[in-house]
From TrEMBL:
Gene3D superfamilies: Outer membrane protein transport protein (OMPP1/FadL/TodX). Keywords: Cell outer membrane, Membrane, Signal, Transmembrane, Transmembrane beta strand. The keyword Transmembrane helix does not apply. This is Aromatic hydrocarbon degradation protein. It is found in: Cell outer membrane. The keyword Membrane applies. It is a multi-pass membrane protein.
Length: 483
């Protein structure tokens, strides 16, 4: 009896849904002109987005003080086919805005030194989906329940992940060709995840016996970490080349909560007995850890006449699988004598990890007039999701595992003291090998345990980018000239 009960709880505990933009490094780009060029600006551009892209370019900035505000407004759609089987899809349509970057530069007496700050939103992902089945299927053997049984099944996921980065950058111009810099990146990450799964069957016996199982999972935490980015830029003639190294993150502090609750009613075991029971655990104020990898980026920009082009390549190292929070062992199944060997720490497990990825961005700009330019760009955004996170029980909170491709086009209008950008962004990605645990197959005798299937998932997004840059020192210079 104990062995059969273990099999059930392991099956249901792995019925968790994987997450689209929560496993990518290049989902967002920052600033005005830099965002329209998909970040292909490692050789430098004349605003303080260099605090993030390449602090080595800060020493070449012409402006002592710059304030930047940029927002992306988008409509995103994620669909996972057959989330419960039988064409019951998960689909999430989100409309919202993302403030990409706001910051400025601090005026220094020594113009060779440049100090800047920025607030950046690299991650802002939300997903909410519900799939439901309600019909008659051949679920239970005719010896117990002749004919078709009434089945009601439902799965729902709500998740939100956000990160805010405070970047403090320092750059120095060494000579006419070289500049170096360092950015200190403090990242505050918050994540909440809730999943509910239920399946209920009414047997065709005299008692109309009710057989069912349901599960609810919850994980939420915040975390603060630090990383350093070292950069250098070399300029010569029409060429400008940049190189950056970003350290692995250092965990500072954070905490969170994990909960997993399972209930079964009249579940048939291998020995033909039916039992009811629960497995439940919740642990709060757990120390949280979140890691970002070492990365290296190389890019070059070329300008000739009215045209300029850039390319940027960034490699992110892999991260071994680790526990975001470490729950303590404790009683999970009740009555405990049904399966005392099942401990809560195994089913509360919440892990993360990353495979190595290589992303490439290309951008092109054509100056139509002194004040007006056209910009086009494209980039890939490879998913760092590690398939080994699918193995074993626990709370699995990642939704996306597919690669995304971004395309951007827009215009930039330069004024005497400011710059205004307007652009359109389109992103798309899909996979035919999406691993979907918790699928309900009415033809499977182990219906309530769910099964893992390979299905198709699709992601698309269309957005509007609005960017504005204000060059404060130009205002000051003009005012002094007027006086």
């Amino acid at each position: 009896m104990k062995r059969s009960f273990i099999l059930f709880f392991m099956g249901v505990a792995t019925c968790s849904f994987l997450h689209a933009q929560d496993s990518h490094y290049w989902t967002q780009q920052y600033g005005t002109r830099s965002a329209l060029l998909s970040g292909a600006v490692l050789g430098g551009t004349n605003d303080n987005t260099m605090i993030y892209y390449n602090p080595g370019a800060l020493g070449f900035l012409d402006n002592s003080s710059v304030s930047i505000n940029a927002s992306a407004y988008g409509i995103g759609n994620i669909r996972v086919e057959n989330a419960l089987g039988q064409q019951a899809d998960f689909e999430s349509l989100q409309v919202g805005s993302v403030p990409l970057l706001a910051g400025g530069m601090i005026r220094m007496k020594d113009q060779k030194w440049k100090i800047g700050y920025a607030f950046i939103t690299p991650v802002d992902f939300s997903f909410k989906g519900i799939a439901r089945l309600d019909n008659d299927y051949e679920v239970i053997e005719d010896l117990e329940s002749p004919g078709l049984e009434e089945l009601v099944a439902e799965a729902g996921i709500t998740t939100k992940t956000s990160e805010i980065v405070l970047a403090l950058g320092l750059g120095r111009k060494l000579n006419e060709n070289w500049s170096v810099g360092l950015s200190n990146l403090f990242t505050v990450r918050s994540h909440s995840y809730q999943r509910n799964f239920s399946s209920y069957v009414f047997m065709n016996d005299e008692e109309r016996t009710f057989v069912g199982g349901n599960q609810s999972q919850n994980a939420e935490y915040y975390n603060v970490r630090y990383a350093a980015k070292l950069g250098a830029v070399y300029r010569s003639g029409n060429w400008s080349t940049g190189l950056t190294f970003t350290s692995p993150s250092i965990n500072l502090f954070g905490q969170g909560t994990l909960a997993n609750n399972i209930a079964v009613r009249n579940l048939k075991l291998i020995d033909d007995n039916r039992i009811s029971g629960v497995a439940t655990a919740r642990q709060a104020e757990l120390k949280s850890t979140y890691k970002s990898p070492f990365s290296v980026a190389l890019g070059t920009n070329y300008k000739k006449g009215n045209s300029s082009a850039g390319i940027a390549i960034q490699y992110y190292n892999s991260i071994d699988i680790y526990d975001i929070m470490e729950p303590a062992p404790g009683t999970f199944v009740r009555p405990a004598e049904l399966a005392p060997e099942l401990q809560s720490d195994r089913f509360l497990r919440n892990r993360a990890g990353a495979e190595s990825v290589l992303n490439i961005a290309v951008g092109y700009e054509h100056q139509l007039s002194d004040a007006f330019s056209l910009l086009l760009s494209a980039r890939n955004d490879m998913s760092y999701f590690d398939d080994e996170l699918n193995d074993g029980p626990g709370i699995k909170t990642t939704i996306s595992s597919w690669d995304i491709y971004h395309f951007t086009g827009g215009v930039n209008l330069d004024h005497r003291n400011s710059s205004l950008s307007l652009g359109l962004l389109f992103s798309t990605g899909n996979t035919g090998k999406y691993e979907q645990p918790g699928n309900i197959n009415p033809e499977d005798i182990n219906l309530l345990e769910g099964s893992t299937t390979i299905t198709r998932a699709r992601y698309s997004n269309i957005g509007l980018l609005l960017g504005y840059t204000l060059y404060l020192n130009r205002l000051s210079n003009n005012k002094e000239a007027g006086d």
